[in-house]
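General statements about sequence and structure are easier to judge against a single worked case. When preparing material for the folding task, we compiled for one chain both its residues and its backbone structure tokens. The amino acid sequence and the backbone structure tokens for this protein are reproduced below:
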Amino acid sequence: MRARGRPYGRSAWRPHAARNPGRGSRPRAPRAPAPRRVAVVTGAARGVGAALARALAARGMAVALLGRELATLEAVARELPVPTCSLEVDVTDEPALRGAADCVRERLGPASVVVANAGIAAAGPFTHTGAALWDRVIAVNLTGSAATARVFLPHLLATRGHFLQVASTASFGSAPMMSAYCASKAGVESFAQALRNELAPAGVTVGIAYLHWTGTGMIENIDEDPVLRALRAHQPAFAGRVHPPEQVAAWLARSIARRAPTVYAPPWLRFLQPLRPVFPYAVSYVSRRALARLTPAELAREAGVLGPGGRADWGAEDRTPARPVTPPHT
């Protein structure tokens, strides 16, 4: 008969063995708690980056928040119930980014998860996009992602960790008036695919996140762009839905926990992968009809950077990259 209040199993007998060390058992020393895993998120000041920092903290991970807006990073960090550090750094400045990686190791420990989320976008005709702005989008989104992977790779090799590259459905079919953004997102997809195969023998996994319409500042004026407005209008209602950053972050955090090779936000996007050869033709058909309705003045408008995060990067008075700063956190 089972004794009342005493569970079956080996754990029920461990206290008894500890009280009688002379009967062939020795008291066990208390086991040290497992070290807290560390996640690094770039572009963490707002939008998906900030929401993902919250989601990973809710899973018990210490979080390093990297970005260009220190005050905003600190505000996000203060919400988190875990050890954090906020680092103001430009992902295109590899020496500064390397300094940030050293700060993370010193303050929190080696990263076991690194999310290359930092990104900006510019909208407007290629012929009226300044070379500096076009190059900046490529530098932040593509070169910055590669630099992030490069400087944190020693961490990930030591922890056999996971690198998540945030991409976009812009790589499925490139939209006019967004040439730099679409080129950069196609580039990061290819980069992550190549990196995945290189790092697999070392036990480091690489995931790619395909984001669709996400309610960040980057699409705050989406309905003012005639091409993007037309593309959304020609999609089924469920496909044109804008998802809040918190929901997208939940999908990404779940994929990180599983070390998934791909994550789709929203999940139904995975069923479109076999149809990718068709997307450039569909986008081209809709885009040409939308462009044909524009006046010469609209076609000649100067390109501009999108969203508060992009404006904070592009509008910085000092174009020299920011150096990493580690403010105190309690």
Notes: DSSP finds eleven helices and nine strands in the chain. Confidence is low (pLDDT under 50) at residues 1-22, 326-330. The longest strand covers residues 162-168.
